[in-house]
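Appendix B, example 12.
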Amino acid sequence: MLTFSAFLPAQKKGASAFLCKKCAKITVWGVPGGCDSLSARRLRPLLAPLLPQGLLPNRKGHDVKLIIAAIKPFKLEEVREALTTIGVRGMMVTEIKGFGSQSGHTEIYRGAEYAVNFVPKVKLEIVVPSAMADQVVETIAKTAKTDKIGDGKIFVLDVNQAVRVRTGETNEDAI
């Protein structure tokens, strides 16, 4: 925790505030009625001029999520249509090979048995506003499900920054 004193509107001069860099929450002491925990996003404009450069982490990019899904290849078109229906405007698709708990499988081809150690999958990478992330994950999970082993995995990550190359727009505006 980092401690500093600053004058903030609706507070007494010299109120103490604590910034947790891990969760980006600021707790302000000295406010009438006790302590108040506020998000750094709301207080950033008030605190930025009072603090040394770089003290407040840039959390704006965390309004954007990257969803990575590995699914069965034959489900790609069905998933794409479902995502388009809920408002997803773009995605990146890559053909991949991998294995999970199934550790591959065996196939018989012209009477000979072959071990297939890496199973073909399709990787989807989708960048969406945070507010839409749960709906996208739910849609992918529901649409890609076959109730058989190897249906895939979905990962959700924070995006620190997104930039549209053509216009220079950033974060939510860039997607």
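The chain has two domains: 2-57, 62-174. The radius of gyration is 23 Å.
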